[in-house]
Amino acid sequence: MKILFLTALLFINFSFAQQITCSPQNKEAFEVKIKEIKSLKKDDIGASMAAIGKTFLGIPYVAKTLEIGTTETLVVDLEGLDCTTFVENVLAFSLLKKSDSTTFNNFTKKLETIRYKNGSLNGYNSRLHYFTEWIANNQFKGLITDITAKIGGTPIQKEINFMSTHRTLYPFLKDDDANLEKIKASEDYLNTQEFCILEKDNIAANEHLIQTGDIIALTTSIKGLDITHTGIATREQDGRIHLLHASTSGAVKISEKPLVDYLKGIKSNTGIMVVRVN
């Protein structure tokens, strides 16, 4: 298994985009995924988000899949996902299906657009590290709409500095003062902004306003941090909203409990943000 793992880390750069990092296995996984989503019924974008998300069920949870090499590249990894890369890949494939464009080149363009500030990879700091910034920037691009305020959310401000105060957790920050200063600048900007949260105690009363395919971001009481986890809303056979997500417990799955009850088990959770794909 160790040999297979090391082999999977031998990535190649494709000639049409030197900043893309993708293994042959993941290029093959992309082709398989394209065949899967082509067979799905073309429905509204929310239904597509949930349906495409469910094609990833069972894919292992793997942390820090983007922290590869010594410089920032557009990493394509469909064989191991964390909560954010799961959402990003599902959104990219959903937009791809909507546009009827299924080439790898168009997929990577959409992934870059989603993952980076103003849609352009320009070093480590151009990645949208904090999810509140991810939401704001992708709303600016016209891809999504933050509907939290419309469904009962309230605005808050919180000091965001987790990355700069825990630099040893981030390979590209640990020994790079230049990257650290750029991250601090991003944090300084975020600290001037408000974001809305639907507080934990108010989610049940507003659950009916959440739709299948909405992106759910879990807000937190952890000092210096805005969001701890993300996933996709899916209304299941019990009529309740559940969370389709890359779970730290092992793999992409649908929460056994409805979202409201699932959140009760997370002590640090303060509520959610809800984002709808345009």
Please, could you describe this protein's structure?
- The protein is of the alpha+beta class and 278 residues long.
- The chain is built from 11 helices and 10 strands.
- Strands 3, 4, 5, 6, 7, 8, 9 and 10 form an 8-stranded antiparallel sheet that branches. It has a two-stranded parallel sheet with strand order 1-2.
Per-chain topology:
Blueprint (H helix, E strand, L loop, with lengths): L1 H7 L11 E3 L1 H15 L6 H10 L19 E3 L6 H17 L4 H12 L15 H10 L3 E3 L7 E3 L5 H4 L5 H4 L2 H14 L4 E5 L3 H4 L8 E6 L6 E9 L5 E6 L5 E3 L4 H6 L4 E9 L1
Tell me, rounded to a whole number, the average pLDDT. 92
Helix content: 25-40%
- Approximate shape: globular
Main beta-sheet strand count, sense and barrel state:
8 strands, antiparallel
Order of helices and strands: HEHHEHHHEEHHHEHEEEEHE
Q: Report how far apart the termini are.
A: 42 Å
Secondary-structure class: alpha+beta
What radius of gyration results from the CA coordinates?
A: 18 Å
Q: Oligomer, anyone?
A: single chain
- The counted number of beta strands is 10
Beta-strand fraction estimate? 15-25%
In terms of per-residue confidence, which ranges show pLDDT below 50 for 5 or more consecutive residues?
A: 1-17
Helices, by number, come to: 11
